[in-house]
Amino acid sequence: MKRWMLIAMAGAALSCGGTNSTAPLVSAGDGGMISDGASDAGSNAPDAGPTSSLNGCTASTYVDATAAGASRAVAFTFFKYSPACLTIATGQSVTFSGDFYSHPLRAGGAPSAGGGAGPSQNPIASMNSGTTASFTFAQPGIYPYYCAAHENIGMYGAIHVR
Ligand SMILES: [Cu+2]
Predict the structure, then answer these.
(1) pLDDT tens-place values along the chain, 162 residues long
(2) Which of 6, 30, 55, 61 has its CA 20 to 30 A from that of 83?
(3) Distance from the CA of 143 to the center of ligand 1, in angstroms?
(4) What is the DSSP letter of 37?
(5) CA–centroid distance, residue 113 to ligand 1 (Å)
């Protein structure tokens, strides 16, 4: 029994070394941790970003705000967020600025865009008053949000945390 286990462990170590010599076990992009609908664990290809539309946001519409000096602000006025689709890094915060009374903020998929709750740990809080709110995103994922008053005319977006 003991000898068998030693042999099995040696075999596992050998096969692991063989894999590492040709390609990393984990993607260089995001380690397969981003909830983008396409698992890439074990792939050496860089992550292409979100592959499916969520609240109108797709890989090509996210604005990259991961740089240290980038503005991570979402402004909203008449029936739209700008930028509606924002990419940040884990641990960064996003500030929403506008009139929450006229544009009540909600976390989740807009009903008119297919709905869905998004990640359960979505830090975006419901806002019904005030003019500014900041939320910190501690986990990778895609966090949808929308305006309760105008989601039916396209007022929604998502924060992509990588
Ligand atoms: Cu609105």
Answers:
(1) 444 444 444 444 444 443 333 333 333 333 333 444 444 444 333 444 566 789 999 999 999 999 999 999 999 988 999 999 999 999 999 999 999 999 999 999 999 998 887 888 899 999 999 999 999 999 999 999 999 999 999 999 999 999
(2) 30
(3) 18
(4) S
(5) 15
Contact 158, 109 (CB under 8 A): no
- Is residue 115 within 8 A of residue 108, CB to CB? The reply is yes
> What protein residues have CB closer than 5 angstroms to ion ligand 1?
103, 147, 149-150, 155
CATH number of 49-161: 2.60.40.420
CA of 65 to the centre of ligand 1 (A): 23
Burial of 61 (0-12, 13-18, 19+ CB in 10 A): middle
CA of 141 to the centre of ligand 1 (A): 24
Q: Is 126 left (phi over 0), alpha (psi -120 to 50) or beta?
A: beta
